[in-house]
Input
Amino acid sequence: MEQLRKGWRLSGMVGAVAFAVAGMGGVQAKEVTDTDILNDAENTSQVVTHGLGTKGQRYSPLAQINASTVKDLVPVWSFSFGGEKQRGQQSQPLVHDGKMFVTASYSRIFALDVKTGEKLWKYEHRLPDGIMPCCDVVNRGAAIYGNLVIFGTLDAQLVALDKDSGKVVWKEKIADYKAGYSLTAAPQIVKGMVITGNSGGEFGIVGRVDARDAKTGKLVWTRPVVEGHMGYKYDKDGKQVDNGISGTTNATWPGDLWKTGGAAPWLSAYYDPDVNLIFIGTGNPAPWNSHLRPGDNLYSASTVAIDPDTGKIVWHYQTTPHDGWDFDGVNEFVSFEYKDPKSGKMVKAGGKADRNGFFFVNDRTNGKLLNAFPFVKQIDWAKGIDVAKGRPIYNDDKRPGNPFTDGGGDGKKGKTVFNAPSFLGGKNQMPMAYSPATNLFYVPANEWGMDIWNEPVTYKKGAAYLGAGFTIKTVADDHIGARRAIDPVTGKIVWEIKNNAPLWGGVLTTKGGLVFWGTPEGFLKAADAKTGKEVWSFQTGSGVVAPPITYELDGEQYVAVASGWGGAVPLWGGEVAKKVNFLEQGGSVWVFKLHKS
Ligand code: CA
Output
């Protein structure tokens, strides 16, 4: 580690000389390699992946900022995304070669001088009328590879820009935005390929994972995650070659419903080189009304493991079979190791805090369920998870009713049920963190419920395809959010910090023994990772719904986070939205370091 850092300092100095020459002569800036991507979790002088490493642990080995020094953490600069486009800011910034790359609402990306915050360039994607993002005009970040910075847009395109000039190098259409597709997640680079899913699960789209040559944008393979659809590979001339059907047509879907089956993998993919698997979560089956689609409806609401070399599904684990509550299984599956208490052997595992309120631990080599326990206090739809069978034990009376057989049987509206968690989930898009120092997951949880009912619906291209109605409700008087430290082996909540508004921002943890996260009330906060004692906070001027990062520059540790309230809560939050409608919008990125007295 120390050796690596020394090596980096040295090459950094060489780089500085080259840069000075570049200023006069035009020598190329530093490119991002596969090694940079794979070393991102250890290399503290850069952040070149979504997740601070492709495993997505969001753990940094930096320790300069710690429980005793954090009181001196002060802002260095702040940059405004400007304009009238101040909506939800969910971007995780990247840092490389003296620049910060941060995306913003309405498909914008900025390159900033990481030392001063000075704007180097901006790219503002020209969006057509009629884009259909379900849950605000957000973007969650970019990927970086070679001399390119790559991000997705609300009209379902992938744009690669020269990271030094901001000029477009390639642009590829992922899907038809008029059918409800969009792209809001940060792409992930795996073996020189840019891996993306798609958004649009509320419009009856077909969830799909694509791998493209990161340097050219050309498809390498595409893998649908709705059972019954054909996957494809592309040869070097770009010719499409059949690559096998995902699963077996009609095994878990009746009739033609798989053709509009949803299961959008709308958050980032992660990658573990130890097992050579891409992990991505899939969204709700479409429509929401589960009575229309008897069966498990694979591969909706699942963790899916894909071999990057073949584009084939190696294993899947469905967290909510036959979902009837919009319990998307999209949340990040984070690779980690633990010692099995019985055998004493180290286990290659992955953890996921699911929308449905349960935390799942799977063997990441084969998907086998190892442990499952609640991470929120109220769960109505299931009594628990049968770990041996790997399936939930449903409370059947908590499935919203069939409009044609109950609720008066008039075919218009089925029986309304109250269920917790709400469809916005025990946890939503905001990524958790895992610390190999404390062996704990730090989960941004929310406690809430909903009234939900079913209605008839038929598929129409580009129209909402739900067949359900809902009102989100609070379940506790004093809080909705709860920042929780969770032991994945015992299933215990070790500590928690309650929050009035629903938490919607991601988490960072460090070797310095700290956990950082933001709140809709506008604070970036830090707590002691072991005890949960809050040790620092700073008001950023608008709600924080993005994950913080940390990095080192010239021997000093920095923390950065985007600020700007928005996302799904104010749009879909029912009674909860009314509770938070005093929060102000914004759009900026903040950078902090320790003040030297
Ligand atoms: Ca959904």
About this structure: The pocket of calcium ion is lined by residues 201-202, 283-284, 326, 328 (CB under 6 Å). The CA atoms of residues 427 and 445 lie 5 Å apart. Confidence is low (pLDDT under 50) at residues 1-25. The first strand starts at residue 59 and ends at 60.
